[in-house]
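Support reply, case 0932

Customer input (verbatim):
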Amino acid sequence: PEFSFWPWKSLSNATTFVRTKRTDNKCTRQPGAVVFYALGPDDVLGNNYPLGSSANTGLYLLGYTQVYMIVDETFRAYLVLTSDQPGRTTSSSVKDWHEIGININTTNLENQSVQVLLKDDSYDSYVWDSSTASGKLLWRWASCCTDGAVLGPLPYTNYSIRLMFDMKTASGIVGAAVLSFNYSSGDVDVI
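Our regenerated output:
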């Protein structure tokens, strides 16, 4: 099947600049995975679609945290995590807020400079140790929106990532879903 080409190399290299959520209207360097996440409003591409304060990846599962990898043309990988679906409600009332905690442990990523490259909400808790490539993410978001993060860059091979979701304290999330690209259909499958 034919696929849309995403110019990862040009969006991921050190010479590419895109607009980010800044008040000074300056451009900054961003990896392609951050551009893909396209946090709105006033996202890195200047869009506010489909809904502000949400990921604009087009990959959503109501009530789930989606987990998938993106690999660029230089074989750098990025872990993308997105919780929920934008537009679930229009409410931003505290009683309608959702929450999930994720512990992340890795093997063979120590001292590889893995960072949290995108934090969907600045008020969330992102405890991350790049020397051990481990940490805990605690997200809280209004039911109108999404929450998430992008971690990377990751090497192409020879590592593992363990994600542990705290479902005892989760609110508005019923589970996690791993997404995988299906080369036969050209679509994304939930596995």
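We compared this against your earlier run and they match. Two observations from our side: Residues 1-22, 42-48 have pLDDT under 50 and may be disordered. The CA atoms of residues 46 and 52 lie 11 Å apart. Please reopen the case if you see a mismatch on your end.
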